[in-house]
Amino acid sequence: MNIPTKKLNNGFEIPVLGFGTWFMGGSFERETNYDENNDIEAIKKTIAMGGSRFDTAEMYAQGYSEEILGKALKDYNRSKLFVTSKVSSANLGYDDVIAACKKSLARLQMSYLDLYLIHAPNPDILIEETMRAFDYLKNRGLIKNIGVCNFNVERLKEAQSKTKNKIVLNQVHYNLLFREPALKGVVDYCQNNDIFIEAWRPIQQGSLAKKGIDIIDKLCDKYSKAPSQIALNWLISQKNIVTITKASNLKHLEENLGSVGWNMGEEDINFLLNDYPIQLDRSNAVQLK
Ligand SMILES: NC(=O)c1ccc[n+]([C@@H]2O[C@H](COP(=O)([O-])OP(=O)(O)OC[C@H]3O[C@@H](n4cnc5c(N)ncnc54)[C@H](OP(=O)(O)O)[C@@H]3O)[C@@H](O)[C@H]2O)c1
Known about the structure:
The protein is of the alpha/beta class. The chain has a single domain, classed as NADP-dependent oxidoreductase domain (TIM Barrel, Alpha-Beta Barrel), CATH 3.20.20. It contains 11 helices and 10 strands. It has helices spanning 37-48, 64-73, 94-108, 127-139, 153-161, 180-183, 186-192, 214-223, 227-236, 250-257, 266-275, and strands spanning 5-7, 13-15, 17-20, 53-55, 82-87, 115-118, 146-149, 167-173, 196-200, 241-245. The strands form 2 sheets. Strands 3-4-5-6-7-8-9-10 form an 8-stranded parallel barrel, surrounded by 5 helices. Strands 1-2 form a two-stranded antiparallel sheet. Helix 5 (153-161) links the parallel strand 7 and strand 8. Helix 1 crosses helix 2. The chain is globular. It starts with a strand and ends in a 14-residue tail after the last helix. The structure holds NADP nicotinamide-adenine-dinucleotide phosphate. NADP nicotinamide-adenine-dinucleotide phosphate is lined by residues 20-22, 55, 119, 149-150, 171, 200-206, 209, 228, 244-249, 252, 255-256, 286. Residues 20-22, 55, 119, 149-150, 171, 200-206, 209, 228, 244-249, 252, 255-256, 286 line the site of NADP nicotinamide-adenine-dinucleotide phosphate.
């Protein structure tokens, strides 16, 4: 199966569904005696089933997630893959960004990243310093594209004003259960300014993969799809929205891949937008900053 892509007016193109790596090798800390073979196998299976886009970060398992991804991808044709990594908010000073990117590339065993993101804003470090370092990395060919995560509209505009390169994507916590990016105008702003919103935690770590909510059950019947596929497709059927999910379990992986290749009707997108009955407590979510 080929995963469809979406394209910005400036030519930046990205597969609508990517695959996350957080918790591969540990959460915030590197796990000792970790059996990485299951994750490597899942990444290879993802590729065999049509996946090509992977998301990681220097922060995940203290770099171990990047190492695992690097081991899994090393025998594939790099030009057919799309790899994103992120610099942590503590490392947004000019020299730190450049050093962090080089370390990520070494752990990934790669010579460039398709997309490099600021993991979260840091008000204590001047954004012009960070963007200057991103421009340096792009000019040197170490990164192909520039993006951010968890930025509100004001920060997005400010970051864009400090670089001549286009910020192509803002990765935010967005799903049926958590609408902060829509409520705070980030989704609208990105849709109107040729920027992708990339929804992370699209199935809320499995919560949106369950039946039992009337509106979801009806749409599952209408489209002959599982709840997770409805939750994922609701995102990618919307303008300028792409997503990343994470699945080490092959059943999950197969199910999630069934979310692409079809489009939910406009009326059902709006039905879910307006009538989905539950919203997550904000304390369980990462706030936009
Ligand atoms: N930029 C940021 O600040 C930020 C923050 C958080 C995450 N992210 C990125 O976004 C990626 C995805 O987010 P996430 O991992 O938090 O959320 P997610 O994809 O919503 O949830 C992943 C969890 O749900 C399970 N799962 C996956 N598919 C399922 C299915 N069809 N049915 C039932 N359970 C399923 C997975 O289990 P198995 O692994 O056992 O299959 C895993 O435990 C991360 O891996 C990371 O790369 C970015």
